[in-house]
Amino acid sequence: MRARDLLAAFPTITIDTPVSQAARLLAEQDLPGLIVIDEHGRPASILPGTQVLRLAVPGYCQDDPALARVIDEEHADHFLDALAGRTVREALPPRPRELPVTDPDATVLELAALMARTHSPLVAVMDEGRLLGAVTLQALLDRVTSL
Q1: Angle at 34 between CA 41 and CA 144, to 5 degrees
Q2: Cys-Cys with 100: which of 9, 40, 120, 134 at CB 3.0–4.6 Å?
Q3: Which residues are 123's β-sheet partners?
Q4: Backbone dihedral angles phi then psi of residue 39, each to the nearest 5 degrees
Q5: Residue 122, phi then psi, degrees to nearest 5
Q6: Residue limits of the CBS domain (predicted)?
């Protein structure tokens, strides 16, 4: 089985996309992450949903989870309000990591190794400089566990 067999069309965003819009897209389409493209339409980064949370959740709650419990429920339900006016650029890690990109001929083991190595829930699939879509962790696991 190859990447082309697991490939799905996938939405893209740019580094200047409002991160609140990215969060809505993640939620509405039940996605593990998004492909961030550059001005030429090529993948520049992957934005996992967890990176959106890192930007929205106050640092003191990340450092000491017990502090999150002292926030009353009404205010806790609105933690994503912290994303207002912020862009995807701010949610990306400061140091670029290996980009999880492959070609349509990659095997499922190659895809799994790339996801594991890059800590990415999806892999962008390119062919001749064109983004074809992505393979998600869910699609990969669904396929290999049903064999």
Answers
A1: 110
A2: 120
A3: 135
A4: -65, -10
A5: -155, 160
A6: 1-65, 94-147
The domains found in the chain, sorted by start residue, are 3-145 (3.10.580.10)
Q: Cβ of 10: how many Cβ atoms within 10 Å?
A: 19
Nearest to 87 by CA among 16, 34, 12, 14: 16
Characterise 41 by phi-psi region: left (phi > 0), alpha (psi -120 to 50), beta (else).
left
What would the 3-class secondary structure string for 48-96 be? EHHHHHHHHCCHHHHHCHHHHHCCCHHHHCCHHHHHCCCEHHHHCCCCC
Q: Which of 77, 90, 76, 68 is nearest to 20 (CA)?
A: 90
Question: For 14-26, how does the pLDDT look when each residue is reduced to its tens digit (9 = 90+)?
Answer: 999 999 999 999 9
Q: Is the pLDDT of residue 28 over 80?
A: yes
- How far apart CA 102 and CA 135 sit, in angstroms, is 10
Which residues have a Cβ under 8 Å from the Cβ of 52 and sit 6 or more positions away? 19, 22, 23, 26, 83, 91
Q: Is the pLDDT of residue 147 over 80?
A: no
